[in-house]
Task: inverse folding
């Protein structure tokens, strides 16, 4: 008589966003994890990039065990007990490994009020990108300074995403560069004179760009640049290294580091993602083990990257084996990612990021005066501050 052994199948479910940088690497890692654990099943859903950035996370906890998230959600999530504090689940060795081996401030960004929002798996930051072939054909030089950037934009060969949140975050980059002390006061978002100077700088940069940019996010820009030959250069957009890969597009981009302003290199605003464990998670031990598996050096440097991911681990970014495969993305844009700045993470911040970009759009289009745009942003900011917790 043959005895058949049955295993109880454990299943967890996660959600990420809809792009080749996000969905396929998690599916690939999950498939391999299942092969190593025959009693496990991991399912992934996806949502749009805008939903990922701005749809409240509390709408997901009843349906998902794992939530791919970015760091500005920390205050919102912890104030409402939406996700687990992962710090309490990690050993000292696991904590130290992540803290030591994640690029730039990516690990630190998820540490909020001594709690850990997520296990980092991905890093991104606004960085310039360009088509090397078009730059050469049109006899264009890569800009080194802000004035060089303006000159290139005036040739109508440069674009940038003008979607509201992207404008706001790139304006924030200039606030830091101009030493406008953003987010230090409860009454004003930054020093008015320098904040308005940054608004004028953004408007001047966009002067020769098509109005369509205000509907473009970084993915649309990257697709546009790799599918036609109209634009040679993107001033700054959240990085999608897939578009550097010869295996992914026929006309690859190159990414690099930001230009200088007043003699100092710009520092953009950190993006990227981590895996949070929902407060409604059905199997916390499994969720944690899989998240750490995705964040391990071995997976990040192999399955995760080769399946389309943009890993957070230094081991992947410094791997000689990945230089050719990634079209040089890691080595070319490392500084831009290492120096990127953390966004505010208080409860309510995400709503400001979404709304404050609208008056910036209207100012750049010429539909609002600088004073009017400043007043609207100020009102949004003061209202937003009341949501802090």
Result:
């Amino acid at each position: 008589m043959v005895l058949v052994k049955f295993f109880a199948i454990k299943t967890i479910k996660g959600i990420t966003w809809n792009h080749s940088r996000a969905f396929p690497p998690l599916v690939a890692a999950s498939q391999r994890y299942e092969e190593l654990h025959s009693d496990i099943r991991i399912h992934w859903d996806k949502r749009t990039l805008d939903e990922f950035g701005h749809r409240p996370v509390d709408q997901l906890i009843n349906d998902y065990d794992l939530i791919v998230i970015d760091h500005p959600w920390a205050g919102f999530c912890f104030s409402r007990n939406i996700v687990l504090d992962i710090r309490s689940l990690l050993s000292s060795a696991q904590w130290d490994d992540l803290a030591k081996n994640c690029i730039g401030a990516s690990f630190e960004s998820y540490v909020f009020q001594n709690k850990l929002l997520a296990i980092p798996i991905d890093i991104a930051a606004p960085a310039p990108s360009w088509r090397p072939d078009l730059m050469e054909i049109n006899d264009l030089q890569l800009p080194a300074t802000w004035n060089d950037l303006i000159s290139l934009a005036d040739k109508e060969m440069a674009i940038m995403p003008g979607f509201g949140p992207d404008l706001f975050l790139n304006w924030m980059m200039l606030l830091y560069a101009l030493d406008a002390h953003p987010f230090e006061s409860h009454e004003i978002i930054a020093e008015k004179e320098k904040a308005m100077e940054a608004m004028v700088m953004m408007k001047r940069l966009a002067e020769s760009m098509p109005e369509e940019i205000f509907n473009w996010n970084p993915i649309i820009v990257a697709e546009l640049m790799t599918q036609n030959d109209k634009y040679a250069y993107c001033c700054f957009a959240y990085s999608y290294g897939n578009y550097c890969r010869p295996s992914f597009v026929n006309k690859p981009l190159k990414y690099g580091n930001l230009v200088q302003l007043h003699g100092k290199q710009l520092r953009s605003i950190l993006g990227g993602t981590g895996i949070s464990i929902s407060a409604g998670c059905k199997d916390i031990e499994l969720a944690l083990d899989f998240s750490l598996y995705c964040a391990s050096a071995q997976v990040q440097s192999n399955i995760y990257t080769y399946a389309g991911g943009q890993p957070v681990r230094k081991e992947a970014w410094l791997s000689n084996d990945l230089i050719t495969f990634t079209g040089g993305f890691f080595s070319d844009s490392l500084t831009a990612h290492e120096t990127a700045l953390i966004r505010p993470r208080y409860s309510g911040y995400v709503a400001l990021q979404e709304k404050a970009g609208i008056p910036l759009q209207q100012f750049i289009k010429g539909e609002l005066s600088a004073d009017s745009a400043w007043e609207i942003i100020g009102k949004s900011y003061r209202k937003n501050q009341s949501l802090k917790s």
In short: The CA atoms of residues 186 and 348 lie 13 Å apart. The first strand starts at residue 10 and ends at 17.
